[in-house]
Amino acid sequence: MSKAYDYAKIEKKWQDIWDEKQTFAAKDDYSLPKFYGLVEFPYPSGQGLHVGHPRSYTALDIVSRKKRLEGYNVLYPMGWDAFGLPTENFAIKNHIHPSIVTENNIANFKRQLKSLGFSFDWSREINTTDPSYYKWTQWIFLQLFKKGLAYKKKMSVNWCTSCKCVLANEEVVNGHCERCGSEVVHKEKSQWMLKITDYAEKLLEGLNDVDFIDRVKTQQRNWIGRSYGTQVKFTASTGDEFEIFTTRADTLFGATYMVMSPEHPLIEKWADKIENMEEVLAYKQEAAKKSDFERTELAKDKTGVKLEGVTAINPVNKKELPIFISDYVLISYGTGAIMAVPAHDDRDWEFAKKFGLPIIEVVSGGEDVQNAPYTECATGKMVNSGFLDGLSVEEAKKAMQKWLADNNLGCVKTNYKLRDWVFSRQRYWGEPIPVVYCEKCGYVPLPESELPLVLPNVDSYEPTDNGESPLAKMTDWVNTTCPHCGGHAVRETDTMPQWAGSSWYFLRYCDPHNDKEFASKEALEYWCPVDWYNGGMEHTTLHLLYSRFWHKFLYDIGVVPNPEPYAKRTSHGMILGENGEKMSKSRGNVVNPDDIVRDYGADTMRVYEMFIGDFEKAAPWSQSSIKGSKRFLEKVWALNEKLTDGEEYRPELEANFNRTIKKVTEDIEGLKMNTAIAALMSLLNDIQATGSITRGEYRTYLLLLNPFAPHMTEELWEICGFGGMLNEAKWPTFDESKCVDSAVEIAIQVNGKIKARINVPAEIAAPDAIALAKEDSAVAEAIGGKTVIKELYVPKKLVNIVVK
RNA sequence: GCGGGUGUGGCGGAAUUGGCAGACGCACUAGCCUUAGGAGCUAGCGCAUUAGCGUGCAGGUUCAAGUCCUGUCACCCGCACCA
């Protein structure tokens, strides 16, 4: 009597065995070939695991399990990115300490992950809120500080009105907070900044050497936004020199006015020279008041104020140009000032039309520039441009750059859209920034020996309306002595953003219990870089960019062995609700993984999520489709009753097995789990048609299915007595020459239309195949009485006879 | 506006060095079994009465096009006054 497929019992049994035996612990034997697979560690929220998490985790679990069977020493770790606002907010609301909330959430997440049978190495579990972990996050911050890459600056920052906290540029989406969706406004604040802009070029260049999917590379490139241009020196009527940045130095003769950002420092300096200073200041105030959202909304309508009493001189033709201020020129990009060439720039043209400014054509080849700007630069020729006349745009650009350089009026310059990373947050639940402020010595880093600087217990974690961190109220903690002069000093009370701990966590996994270094040199040299990293597209310009930045910095100071942290990056699509919308509580379409595991089992859940569709694309959840995966596994289970002796593949299935091994092996590497499963289903159908399965066939089948459905296959392996545990067996191999059946069905076409199908030997010669094709009655009829012009045989596919 | 991507049955999706479109699964239909169930088994399942027609649409190249070329439409994602 055979056992029924009792998934609940089987899954529990194997999960316990794996735990007890530490089956999936990575070995410290550095002589073995290694594979480091990584998935983004979750934020342990109170809601528990989302069905989206297992999509990523299962995919790399499959890769990891296959790599182990292929003999690799695999590191597939998991941990917790546990600092963050939701935990803090929950703690505030329920009067529980955030560390307790975190602990509870982690326990729940861990239970859920274990219930899905992921082969994580739990002995290397890390937690970003653990002082023994964030000690090293702080240590890295100190290194950045020492190299001048962390600095404090008073500036206009993005302020989330609901989180009561500053945000990095990367965290602002359409003028709203990336996390909570509330409106973002500008606020003048002194903030810690990280100079990621110093790494713009390296972050860009590094992309050429890694295997990231194209859309990730493209998005990062766009975000960094490199542009090659020219910086040109202008002189104002006040005698002050100022610079502008342009990518169109060729159009310098077409400049008819200048625009400065309202925040440009010269505006203040010229306060007594500008005749309409009141109007200018009013405009500046108005611009500052606008939120990011309003600014984008109003982007179409150009506004500005002309400076009365101050003008600029165009260095190429000495023409006097009016100067405007307008918020379409950003203080944070380039030099905060531009020359405006309305004939050849959309924005300048719009502004010129609105303010009735002259439009002078300097590139010919377009329509009348009075009607529309001509921005095309591939074909035009220079006109009205003195020594540039007749040149192409590209030639003119070079000639102008040379002229400017020769006359000491400008230089070539590369600009980036990327801005420095706003690194402080006015919240409690984050890593304390290990710096004190001393009246005498300024900002002084804590000595490394004093790390970790532990987050103190406070009575209230409530964010404050005045924009101060809750830690500021802890006067005992705040008041301290200066490590440099021993005098009075105050601690930094802002904390680090959530992205800090996740910027280097993959390094800690290499050597998670090391209390001397963040990881030993040997461990890093063996395990790095991460061979394959899968994660969400939403992290492309946040976590992925930030962690590459930190890693490149660590490489530059000689503490990590590779310039890039991740050799390969892939990304999964979202799992949507059954209605095709994003899963959310408010839409009521959330699926809880616990329910699926309970009702169908972890193996079914894993197979279903992999079979749901193209891994990279979003896919709607379908409760009824899960049944297909369940039926599939039940059929595989039922085969153990049809077992017959024999270690070989039966001749009629030999090619099929070889093909399937090839397909599954290659599809796993290509993240095409859906077609790998389809191939296994197809093979199963063919096996079922024979009414039995040999031991050798079953053994191979279970190995192929194991990465997808690890519990059930281990159980069947044991039931069948295949020896040892499946996870210790070897991944099956295939013989390319045996992948094709000896006889194949080919299609016969006449003039490209299918007339018949016949079976022929796989290695049949073309003339023989064509002759056989002509014997078919339907084919004979179709070509009867006509002249054959051409006859083709595509091996193993078809014959096409062309007639007239 | 710029950048990236996608359009294939009722649904999720296969198939791209050009070579049998719709693999695999869901749903559906019919039949069997039945302890009556939202279980299992068998068969069918792109459209069309036929010749035929079919991969967003219109052309083109080719013996042969979902796949290549030209044009066009729709939708999704990212960035967004970056000079």
Main attributes?
single chain; about 800 residues; alpha/beta; 7-stranded mixed β-sheet; 5-stranded parallel β-sheet; 25 helices; 34 strands; about 20% strand; RNA-binding
Task: Give structural notes.
The protein is an alpha/beta fold. 35% of the residues lie in helices and 20% in strands. It is built from 25 helices and 34 strands. Helix 18 packs across helix 19. The relative contact order is 0.11. It binds one RNA strand of 83 nucleotides through helix 7, strand 12, strand 16, helix 11 and strand 28.
Number of strands: 34
List segments where confidence is low: pLDDT < 50 over at least 5 consecutive residues. Answer: none
Report the portion of residues in β strands.
15-25%
Distance between the termini: 67 Å
Shape: globular
For the report, how would you describe the main beta sheet?
7 strands, mixed
Mean pLDDT: 92
Q: What structural class results from the helix and strand content? A: alpha/beta
Binned, the helix content reads 25-40%
Helix tally equals 25
Radius of gyration: 33 Å
